[in-house]
Design brief:
Blueprint: H1 15-21, H2 29-32, E1 39-40, E2 44-46, E3 55-61, E4 64-70, H3 89-114, H4 129-137, E5 144-146, H5 152-157, H6 162-169, H7 204-217, E6 224-229, H8 236-248, E7 252-258, E8 261-262, E9 265-266, H9 280-283, E10 287-291, H10 295-310, E11 316-321, H11 339-346, H12 350-361, H13 367-390
Parallel strand pairs: 2-10, 5-6, 6-7, 7-11, 10-11
Antiparallel strand pairs: 1-2, 3-4, 8-9
């Protein structure tokens, strides 16, 4: 499938958050409005239409441990999707199509694993398709992203085929890494501006910040997006990366996929703040809380963060609240999760919510149109699956390829312009760097 890049109409980002991020320390409208419940700590906005509160209790029964959930919200009705300020009908349908393809592809991967055709494990983003697809949809052509293991929807939006992802999991010769690696360890620096995932959680945060710095040195402000789970967000390197992006006003858009469980550890047992978006306060950057099952909320928050980044106003932290509807990986049955939590979030399935929005609320799709759309996605997925299954395994002699970089390897060249010496003041001129030199002037 070819990647479709749409031209988005520039829109003013939340001016109040921008003023605070630029050092408006005393009398900003944002501070004056903090008493209305929308803002906390003068920097955090909560855009959700419902704000459930869960408390997970650890119960010990001899040597056995189980979890129970306490919440008054478990039977609450599902709210309507928030209207997008930026997306038109065709954009909403396109995002929905990516979400459907994302889920169908992961179902196919699960079946391939059961057939013994997948090498290693499979990591699912069930229940997170709206967040993954809508956030990546907010990126422009010059922007960059670094996906995590559950952001396979973002890879599809950015132009990878479902066959690419399935071949990668199957270690086929036609995969992006030519069968030398599996899971999501691949990217595309040449055409799609995708940095490959790093297994050490949090390490992508400073890497993407470095990408934004590289563009800044070439005279261009871009948005760089990466994702992290609520568990990985507690790693030290995450803090270091966000802090550097904040100080240097680099365009990092960090989406925290707050899915309630860090593997088998509930959120209540891994951090003390009520919301992870509150951590933005410590960095002096805007924080936003969205319902991760509402693709419209996710898109709008990411769109505004990307626009802000392109204007050179710095980083934004977005916390998307949702539930990982499967275990950490295919080997994890998630038996530790209380069933009432699964039932609560199952009713908030992002695909079902989007379907209801398009067909019943907006009437942008008729039942016949919807059936045709699903049939097209399934036909595409089946064709992609056949490509992946029929791709050959790599030859033994190809194993040594790419171990060492030689003259045939990719060359690292400036993407936007030659780096500029920022110490030249108003009369900046482009300068070439000697081989032994490195750009050190960040601002």
């Amino acid at each position: 499938m070819k990647m479709k890049m749409m031209k988005k109409k520039s829109s003013p980002v939340n001016e109040r958050a921008a003023k605070v991020s630029q050092g408006d320390n005393g009398n900003s409208p944002l501070q004056r409005e903090s008493s209305n419940g929308d803002y906390r700590g003068n920097l955090v906005r909560d855009l959700r239409l419902e704000k459930p509160s869960f408390k997970v209790l650890q119960i010990r029964d001899g040597e056995k441990v189980r979890y129970e959930v306490e919440s008054a919200d478990l039977e609450a009705p599902v709210p309507a999707i928030r209207e997008s300020k930026y997306l038109r009908r065709e954009h909403c349908i396109e995002i929905y199509r990516w979400m459907l393809l994302n889920r169908r592809m992961e179902t196919a991967l699960e079946n391939l694993h059961k057939q013994g055709k997948v090498v290693g494990g499979v990591y699912f983003g069930l229940g997170q398709e709206g967040c993954s697809c809508a956030s990546a949809y907010a990126l422009g052509k010059d922007d960059w992203m670094g996906p995590m293991i559950r952001n396979q929807g973002a890879l599809l939006v950015r132009g990878f085929r479902a066959a690419d992802i399935m071949m990668q999991y199957m270690a086929k010769a036609g995969s992006p890494t030519k069968g030398r690696d599996t899971t999501s360890h691949f990217g595309d620096l040449e055409r799609r501006n995708v940095v490959a995932p790093i297994s050490m959680l949090g390490d992508l945060v400073p890497v993407l910040t470095g990408v934004a710095l590289g563009a800044r040195l070439q005279g261009k402000n871009i948005a760089v997006m990466t994702w992290i789970g609520d568990g990985g967000q507690s790693t030290g390197v995450t803090y270091e990366g966000i802090n550097f992006a904040s100080v240097q006003k680099l365009g990092l858009v960090l989406v925290i996929e707050s899915n309630l469980w860090a593997y088998s550890t509930p959120s209540d047992m891994q951090y003390g703040v009520k919301d992870l978006a509150d951590r933005a306060i410590g960095y002096g950057i805007p924080g936003v809380i969205v319902d991760g099952t509402d693709a419209m909320q996710v898109y709008d928050a990411c769109h505004e963060a990307c626009e802000r980044a392109r204007r050179g106003e710095g980083a934004t932290l977005i916390e998307a609240k949702m539930m990982r509807m499967k275990g950490h990986a295919i080997h994890d049955g998630a038996d530790y999760v209380p069933k009432p939590m699964f039932e609560y979030w199952k009713r908030r399935d992002p695909i079902l919510r989007m379907e209801n929005y398009l067909i019943k609320e907006k009437k942008w799709l008729s039942s016949a149109d919807h059936e045709k759309l699903i049939a097209e996605v399934e036909k595409q997925l089946e064709a992609e699956r056949e490509i992946a299954v029929n791709s050959p395994m790599p030859t033994p002699e190809s194993a040594a390829g790419g171990v060492y970089c030689d003259e045939s390897c990719h060359q690292i060249k400036p993407r936007y312009a030659m780096p500029k010496d920022r110490m030249l003041g108003q009369n900046e001129k482009q300068v070439g760097l000697k081989q032994s030199e490195a750009p050190v002037h960040f601002k």
